[in-house]
Amino acid sequence: VREAYERATPQSRALAERARSVMPGGDTRSVTYHRPYPSFVDSASGATLQTVDGETLLDVLNNYTQSVLGHAPEPVVEAVCDRFRAGNGVAAPTEPAVELAELLVDRVASIDQIRFCNSGTEATMNAIRAAMAWTGAERICKIDGGYHGTHDVVEIGVSGDGRAHEGIPRSAERRVQTVSYNDSEQLKATFEAVGDELACLVLEPILGAGGMIPATDEFLRTARDVTEDADVPLVFDEVMSFRLSPGGAQERRDVEPDLTALGKLIGGGLPVGAVAGREQLMAQFHPETGSIDHSGTFNANPATMIGGVATLEQLDGDAIAVLNRRGDELRGRLQQIGDDSNQRITITGEGSLFQIHFTDGPVRDWRSSGAGSPLSEPLFHAMRREGILVAPRGMGNLSTPMDDEDIETIATAFERALESL
Ligand code: PMP
To answer: Reaction(s) catalyzed by this protein (predicted)?
Structure first.
């Protein structure tokens, strides 16, 4: 497998060697790294990527769900370029941010107000700060295997072990209480035991990096109930799940959090994040009356904001319905192929999001997901040989330029890839 990959990617290999001498690992994102080296992308348009080695790949990774309209969608490119020509980096508020804020407030029932930042990491960091400032508490409750970016407290328990990675202060562990996803009893017990010490419960309505595992309705309702009873803000991290409905997963699942962290697609392909929610909580960011400092050179950058507006205008209810229908169809096909194969396969996901797991299931949390299976990497390479880019861990997602034929292409590639393992 590895030899075939190296033979197909000589330009990437040369670039990776060059990159390694100036960047550790030759890249700047842990998640995009894989052995022996990731291939370099030259350009991308619509549903496909062109690598520097002259390969064309169907992009079923879409920058980890960010590129929901595919690559270089014309209305977004135009809006962003126009804004650049009009002068972009200014230390003053601009109308595009107001437009994007109004659009999001209109679309999401739980959002009264919003503050923009530059990544999902900053979004969850600011949401947690708002919750801490509100409650005066310093501990958070999060999910085993829940991913919320790379600031200290949310790095705890990312690998389902409740521990800190190197470089994160051990003291951060004392600030985090983890619970298993979809374990309502454990969540209730945790809130009974330490609810009065908690600043917030933060969770993804679909566990993303932890395996693309949907929450049960019961778990989301329990999350709402225990936080309401304890008077602790409920924070939904919708950085990935916002694509599931015009008003995010919270609309689809009919549960309203107090705060929402957003990112990825709301910036039109430029770096973005946002913390949003109920007026009283968000008022803490008001410079005259609030207590939270929130600065950032690129916060509400006009090109990002207008790119977000142009993206959301394309991503309306109809577009999302088509994406979700294709996703349902694809997950059904992949599960059928898995069942007919000699591997143990469970497909999870919701709407246009999916993940392939090497286990019989049921997959309900990080621990039952079979994460770290030795077959994940060979599957990734086998899919790539078939012209399909998914995440090395087996995650994929659809973009609006994909049609029914692309769904068939992905399914056929999966069937052939499984046969080759
Ligand atoms: N939260 C979730 C649910 C995410 O999936 C991610 C990124 N994949 C983040 C937060 C962090 O966002 P960013 O990479 O923009 O910091």
So the answer is: (S)-4-amino-5-oxopentanoate = 5-aminolevulinate
pLDDT digits (tens, 9 = 90+) for 279-302: 999 999 999 989 999 999 999 999
Expressed in angstroms and rounded, the spacing between residue 262 Cα and the centre of ligand 1 is 9
Q: How far is CA 58 from the centre of its chain?
A: 20
Instruction: Determine the angle formed by the axes of helices 74-85 and 302-314, rounding to 10 degrees.
Output: 160
Pair of tokens at residue 35:
């052995």
Q: Is 240 in the pocket of ligand 1 (CB under 6 A)?
A: yes
- For 151-215, the three-class secondary structure string (H helix, E strand, C coil) is CCHHHCCCCCCCCCCCCCCHHHHHHEEEECCCCHHHHHHHHHHHHHHEEEEEECCEECCCCCEEC
Distance 272 CA to ligand 1 centre (A): 10
Round to whole Å and give the CA distance between 117 and 125. 10
| 149 CA: nearest ligand 1 atom | 11
Question: Rounded CA gap, 61 and 183, in Å?
Answer: 29
Q: Is the C-beta atom of 370 inside 6 A of ligand 1? A: no
pLDDT grade for 163, boundaries at 50, 70 and 90: confident
Phi–psi pair at 48, nearest 5 degrees? -125, 155
pLDDT digits (tens, 9 = 90+) for 30-75: 888 988 999 999 999 999 999 999 999 999 999 999 999 999 999 9
ipTM surpassing 0.95: yes
Domains and CATH numbers, the chain: 2-68+316-420 (3.90.1150.10), 74-314 (3.40.640.10)
Extract the tokens encoding 303: 């090109």
Q: Rounded to a whole number, what is the largest CA-CA distance in the chain?
A: 64
Ligand 1 centroid to residue 7 C-alpha, Å: 33
**Residue with the nearest Cα to atom 13 of ligand 1?**
120
